[in-house]
Fold:
Amino acid sequence: MFRKILLTTAAAALMFAQAPLRKPTALEKPALEAYLRHLFVWPPGQVQMTISDPVAGPVPGFLEVKVRGSNGQQGQDEIFYVSKDGQKIVRGIFYDINQNPFKSEIEKIKTDLQPSYGTPGAPVVIAEFSDYECPYCREEAKTLRDNLLKTYPTQVHVYYFDFPLEAMHPWARPAAIAGRCVFRQSPSAYWEYHDWIFENQKDITPENLKEKVLEFAKTKAVDVKELTGCIDTRATSAEVDKSIAIGQSLNVNQTPTTFINGRRLAGAAAWNDIKFIIDYEIGYQKTAKNAGEDCGCDVKLPTFAGDKPAATPGLHK
Structure:
């Protein structure tokens, strides 16, 4: 009897030794979602959550996962790095000391056919994500327009990106669409529109926006009939969507948000703070050459198709 028990125990031990060890569970989206909802206080009935499929992360052993929480037109984007066994997550930023720390942001700022002013090829590129109905954007716009070209006549190139917060500002998107309609006809008139609409922001409503825009256009080098048709058909809506998508890829979640050679400034910044960063970048890029429009990064305007210059209609230089 004792020998039988001993043999049974030995057999069980042998089976256990031969059985493969259970591997740690890989990334499970439901488990990650539950964890993140608790972390952010995002109730399932109120906040929709989207978790991307994991892709290779910036460091070995970790996968990159993009998470978006949304409630109507409001949203928040986050990036997490998840260990391959799905058990550890990192919320933060990985840096490669051999690269510009803002390389990821610079590569996402696609400037082709965006309204701009300043000097093409400048060592400092500013990308401004703004909303025509936002009072803080009005302050930021005035700060930049009053100071930039006067202080930096050749060293800075500014691009404007529409990022209307539709949930808060009912006429911001229609104003962006109208602005793009003006830009199609005349890049120089676009900047007159930009300054005019911010100056008259308090007098504009969803009901009178079109009327006031057309009144503005009558005094400018703009075909009012063509502009009316463009506004009525929302012909530039896709251009506004493209601008918004670029902002979302950069996790812009407030206006204004400004990027100076990829460095993020959220909210309306004081001129002294903006100037401090620009001065630093001008000096730094003299040797670094890893930002601005002369660095070979994606932020640079496309000027060649094959071996011939490519047309870039509508660009303001």
